[in-house]
Automatic annotation (TrEMBL), chain A:
Membrane topology: Multi-pass membrane protein
UniProt entry tagged with the keyword Repeat: no
Pfam families noted in UniProt: LrgA
Gene Ontology cellular-component annotations: plasma membrane
Protein name: CidA/LrgA family protein
Transmembrane segment boundaries: 24-42, 63-82, 88-114
Major place of residence: membrane
Keyword field: Cell membrane, Membrane, Transmembrane, Transmembrane helix
Matching InterPro entries: LrgA/CidA
Biological source species: Methylobacterium nonmethylotrophicum
From TrEMBL, chain B:
Subcellular location: Membrane
UniProt protein name: LrgB family protein
InterPro entries reported for this sequence: CidB/LrgB
GO CC terms, sorted: membrane
Alphabetical keyword list: Membrane, Transmembrane, Transmembrane helix
Membrane topology category: Multi-pass membrane protein
Transmembrane segments: 6-29, 41-59, 65-86, 98-119, 157-177, 214-237
Taxonomy, superkingdom: Bacteria
Record-linked Pfam families: LrgB
Main location: membrane
């Protein structure tokens, strides 16, 4: 598990360096995710000689353990929002309406576009 | 009395107390969510944050003191984002098969999230500086705050709007798409991640691993596209 966590951190660190060095508009961890994908593809091409935790499913279990409680990780930032609801003061109602309307429309537009194009392309 | 006070001064200043409060609030919220069969309104993020918020208000604890303990949890957002590569890799055949539908849904969804957000707010008389902070609300907080700062808006307001959007999206996605009769969990997950970033992705993982995988992809792609689209959209409404 420690080895798996180390690999996740290494990918994040490399991702942060790449994102900053090239001033990319995506966050470092997203670049890190792409790097880990590349690592996984390389691993399965040449599985020999790697430490066991990277090939016996430990890495997968560690990653899924983190993702199973993804909600937890938003609690510290979310608790900060409670103390800053005052920034909504002057336009609270208008902003609430805008959030509800645009989020609902975005969900519907995305899901319909996805399923319609998937049907057209026979997928 | 002074002894109790000294204990409180000690506890309130160590990371231990606030880390424990964060985890306890989440465990309670997650239990409620599980007991209701993952009902959308029992969203664990929503209920954990008001519980923590209540403790902070009652104990008059400044957020900065709380965050010194909670930062260890917050930090894990980075490795968790990297970890999205695991389900993505395992479902890579499912994902590459629908590359075209994903890109189409990304272009349409990202534009709708942005235009409907600033369009509705503009109609309701929200002034331009606040529209800047609202525009990137569907994107993960760090990117959204970066977009707002670059355009001269208030990143704190953006952070609040991003979290609220995430919670709203995570609550709305299941009942809304059930009502529309959409059963494709690839499309449903993708919509959740696009409209409601990480909090929508967390919701999608509660429902199915395929939905979560597609939500993670949508979150990453939308961060990139929104960064490009926001300046364009704001130039149009101004």
């Amino acid at each position: 598990m420690i080895l798996s966590l180390t690999l996740l951190l290494l990918c994040q660190l490399a991702g942060e360096i790449v994102a900053r060095a090239f001033a990319l508009p995506v966050p470092g961890p997203v670049v890190g995710m792409a790097l880990l994908l590349a690592v996984l593809a390389l691993r399965d091409r040449r599985p020999g000689g790697l430490p066991a935790p990277l090939t016996d499913g430990t890495l997968e279990r560690t990653a899924k353990g983190l993702l199973a409680h993804l909600s937890l990780l938003f609690v510290p930032a979310g608790a900060g929002v409670i103390g800053r609801l005052d920034v909504l003061a002057a336009h609270g109602v208008a902003l609430a309406v805008a959030l509800v309307v645009s989020t609902a429309l975005a969900l519907v537009a995305t899901v319909y576009t996805f399923s319609t194009v998937a049907r057209w392309t026979g997928r | 009395m002074t002894g109790e006070f000294a204990l409180w001064v000690f506890l309130s200043r160590t990371p231990l107390l606030w880390l424990t409060v964060t985890l306890t609030a989440y465990v309670i919220a997650d239990r409620i969510s599980a007991a209701t069969g993952r009902h959308p309104l029992a969203n664990p993020v929503l209920h954990a944050i008001w519980m923590v918020g209540l403790v902070l208000v009652l104990t008059r604890t400044p957020y900065s003191v709380y965050f010194e303990g909670a930062q260890f949890v917050h930090f894990l957002l980075g490795p968790a984002t990297v970890a999205l590569a695991i389900p993505l890799y395992e479902h890579r055949k499912t994902v590459t098969r629908v590359l075209v539908p994903m890109l189409a849904a990304l272009a349409v969804g990202s534009t709708v999230a942005l235009v409907a957000g600033i369009g509705t707010a503009k109609l309701l008389g929200v002034p331009d500086p606040i529209l800047i902070a609202l525009a990137p609300k569907s994107v993960t907080a760090s990117v959204a705050m970066g977009i707002t700062s670059a355009l001269g808006g208030d990143p704190t307001l953006t952070a609040v709007l991003v979290i609220l959007t995430g919670i709203l999206g995570a609550i709305m996605v299941t009942p809304l798409l059930d009502r529309l009769g959409i059963r494709d969990y690839r499309a449903r997950g993708f919509a959740a991640g696009l409209a409601a970033h990480g909090i929508g992705t967390a919701r999608a993982f509660q429902v199915s691993e395929v939905a979560g995988t597609f939500a993670g992809i949508a979150m990453g792609l939308n961060a990139f596209l929104t960064a490009v689209l926001v300046p364009l959209a704001l130039a149009l409404v101004r």
